[in-house]
Amino acid sequence: MAMGWLCGHCLYRRREEPRRRDVLLRLHHHLFAGSAFGLNAYECGVLHTWLTEDNALSGTPAWTADPLEATLARLVTSVQENKGTTWIATPTAHTIAAVLASSPTASPAESTLLGAITQHIEEWATNPAGVDHRRFGTGPRYRAQVLRTTSRPTQLSARGGPFDLHQTPATAAEPDTTSPEAEEEAGDHGV
């Protein structure tokens, strides 16, 4: 599903002066909907600052397993060149989420959001409820079903997540026109 319809609020109003939480929501939106994580120059600056403000982050197990030095250089280049979009591959985005989850500078709200994102990433990868890929595919429908069936839903799961803003309301039940009672009622009204 194209990113454009998912969250106009995050795509427009929060893109020019993003907070760290906004960058995390974009990370989640993109990972939920596709296979890469796209940021503009402002968001790259926020992410770069967050990843470099505490030197201890570069010693986390996630960073050690998948070093982010090249990603940091790309973020700096994006800011300097004022790039419209810089794409970060899904595995690197997973590493970034895991590294930031270890950040001592994260606010309680950011920590909660990071916990939800990292749990979602883990569940999408491990599929603990055994969701059938053949029935739901591997994209957003599969991910939504995995979150729907989780035994320990996060706040994002319980709320439908930030990716599900355009839910269609449940359709009203259609009247039963096949039962004898329905036929009698229709006959009484000249139908």
Counted beta strands: 2
Q: What's the rounded overall pLDDT mean?
A: 78
What is the N-to-C order of secondary-structure elements (H for helix, E for strand)?
HHEHHHEHHHHHH
**Largest sheet: spatial strand order:** 1-2
User: What is the rounded Rg?
Assistant: 22 Å
Q: Helix share of residues?
A: 55-70%
What is the percentage of strand-forming residues? under 5%
What is the overall shape?
globular
Q: What structural class should be given to the helix and strand makeup?
A: mainly alpha
Instruction: Give the number of helices.
Output: 11
Q: Biggest sheet, in brief?
A: 2 strands, antiparallel
Given as residue ranges, the uncertain stretches (5+ residues, pLDDT < 50) are 1-6, 161-174
- Compute the separation of the termini in Å: 44 Å
Write the layout of secondary structure elements.
Elements: H1 8-13, H2 20-33, E1 36-39, H3 41-52, H4 61-65, H5 69-81, E2 86-89, H6 90-101, H7 108-126, H8 133-136, H9 140-148, H10 155-159, H11 180-188
Antiparallel strand pairs: 1-2
Helix pairs in contact: 2-7, 3-5, 6-7
Polypeptide structure, described:
The protein is mainly alpha-helical and about 190 residues long. It is built from eleven helices and two strands, in the order ααβαααβαααααα. The protein has helices at about 10-15, 20-35, 40-50, 60-65, 70-80, 90-100, 110-125, 135, 140-150, 155-160, 180-190, and strands at about 35-40, 85-90. It has a two-stranded antiparallel ribbon with strand order 1-2. Helix 6 crosses helix 7. The longest helix has 19 residues, at about 110-125. The protein is globular. About 25% of the residues are buried.
